Amino acid sequence: MKILLGVTGCIGAYKSALVLRLLQKKGHEIVPVMTRSAEQFIGALTLEKLSGNRVLRDLFEDGSTEIEHIAAARGSDLLLVAPATANILAKFANGIADDFLTTLYLSTTTPVVVAPAMNVEMWHHPATRRNVSTLRERGVTVVEPGVGYQACGEYGEGRLAEPEEIIEVVTSLLNPGKKDSLKGRKVLVTAGPTIEDLDSVRFISNRSSGKMGYAIANEAARRGADVTLVSGPTHLAPPKGVEVFGVRSAAEMAEVVFNLFPSMDIVVKAAAVSDFTPRHRVPQKMKKTESPLSLELEPTIDILKHLGEIKSNQYLVGFAAESEDLLTHAREKLRRKNLDLIIANDISEKDSGFEVDHNRVVLLDREGNEIVLPRLSKNEVASRLWDHIEQRLATRIEVSK
Fold first, then answer.
1. I need a labelling partner for 34 at 20 to 30 A (CA). Which of 114, 137, 261, 308 fits?
2. Cβ-based neighbours of 86, under 8 Å, separated by 6 or more
3. Rounded to the nearest 5°, which phi and psi values hold at 92?
4. Alpha-carbon distance 363 to 42, whole Å?
5. Which of 11, 18, 19, 17 is nearest to 41 (CA)?
C-alpha cells in the first residue's frame, strides 16, 4: 500500500527515517511530505533516498498541469504525520491550508494518523487538547506521545511515540481483520488512578497514567464493541467512539461501575484503585506544625471482589500489579475474586508498567492457561488481551451448545 509520510519541524523528526524503514519492511511504498521547518531537523535528501520517491514539499514546485496535492491524496491509502507538532495539529483542526502538507490533509479521504511530539506544557495546553479532541471527532487516529526527558530538558508527556508503536497503529488501520470481532458485545473498562482527598489540597493516589486501560478500551471499540470507560483523573484524550465517565475517588468509581455492571458482557478492571482512604477528611487545608502528623486510613471498597461475587454471565478481567512473587499473588487473586482472567505485571520493572508506554505481562485464566508476553507497547498488549478474551468466549459458547 502507498503511505504518505508527513514530517514536521521538531527534534523528533530524526525518527521519521526509522518509521519510514519499518513501514517499508511491512511492504508499503512511502512518499515523504515535508514542511519547511522539518528541513531544519532532517534533510529531504535522506528521506528521498530511503523512500525512493521525490519528497513533496512545495505546492508550486511541479511544472506539470496536474494538481499534485490532489493527485497524491487520491493515490494513497493512508496519511501518517510523524512527528506532528502543535502547529500542524492546530492547522489540521482549523482547516488552515498554507503549505503542501496542510493542503494535502484537507484533500485526503483515506485514514489519517498523527503522532504528536512537543514540549510537555504545549501538549497539555487547552488549545492543543481542544485541537486533538477535534481531530479525534473527525476520525483522525492519534498515537499518544510518550513520557520522558525532552530536548528542552523537561520531563513529561510529549516525546514522539516509539516508531514500533506508530507502526502497530498504522498496521491495524490498514489491516482491519478484527474490526467487527466484538460487535454486539457491551464492554466496561476502568482506567487510571483514583484520588483520596486528605484536605482541600492534599490527597493520596498512585502513579497510574491510565494508558493501559485507555488502550484496552480503544482496541475494544476498534473491534466493534459498545465500550464504556470509567476513568480516574488522567491527561489522556478519550478514545474515539467510547462513552467516558470521569470519576475521582474509589467510592465514585464503585458507584458508577456497580450501576453499569448488570448490562455488561465483558468487564476489564484496569484501574489502579486506591486501597485506602482517610477515615476523616479535613474540609480546609491542614496547617503545618512542628509535631508529627498521624493519618488514620480505612480500606476502600474492593470493587473487583464485589463484581466477582455478583456476576452472572459476565466475563470478568482484573489486573495484578505486584512487586514480588508475581504469579503466586496473581493466581491467588484470580481465585479469591472469582475472575475469569487476570493480567499480572511486575511493577518493579523500570521499562514497563506505570507511567511508560510499554508493558510486560502474563495472562492467567481460570482454565489454567498461562501466556507470557514479552515487553510490548500497551496498544499491542491490549490487542493480545482481546485476542485471548475472544478465544475464551468462543470456547465458552461451544461448551454451552
1. 137
2. 116, 118, 122, 123, 125, 128, 131
3. -60, -45
4. 42
5. 11
Catalytic position from the list 71, 127, 152, 394: 152
344 beta partners: 320, 362
The CA-CA-CA angle for residues 340, 345, 351, to 5°, reads: 155
Residue for grid cell 492519534: 142
Q: Tell me which residues of the chain have a pLDDT lower than 70.
A: 60-69, 152, 176-178, 351-353, 355, 397-401
Cis omega (within 30 of 0) for bond into 262 = no
pLDDT at 65: 41
Q: Which residue has the cell 470456547?
A: 395
Respond yes or no: is residue 10 known to be catalytic.
no
Most distant CA pair in the chain: distance in Å? 81
Find out whether 356 and 196 touch, Cβ atoms under 8 Å: no
CA angle in degrees (0–180, nearest 5) for 158-163-167:
120
pLDDT of the residue at 125: 95
Tell me how far apart the alpha carbons of residues 350 and 352 are, in angstroms, rounded to a whole number. 6
Domains of the chain (ranges, CATH numbers): 2-174 (3.40.50.1950), 186-277+297-400 (3.40.50.10300)
Share of the chain above pLDDT 70, in %: 94
Owner of C-alpha cell 525532552: 150
**Rounded distance, CA 138 to CA 133, Å?**
9
| Structure-block grid coordinates of residue 254 | 464503585
Q: What angle do CA 335, 309, 322 make, to 5 degrees?
A: 40
**Residue 28 C-alpha from the chain's centroid:** 24
- What per-residue confidence (pLDDT) applies to 391? 92
C-alpha dihedral, 61 to 63 to 64 to 66, nearest 10° = 40
Q: What residues have CB less than 8 Å from 49, skipping those under 6 apart?
A: none
DSSP labels for 109-144? -S-EEEEE---HHHHHSHHHHHHHHHHHHTT-EE-P
Cα separation of the two ends of the chain:
42
Give 70's contacts (C-beta < 8 A, 6+ positions apart).
107
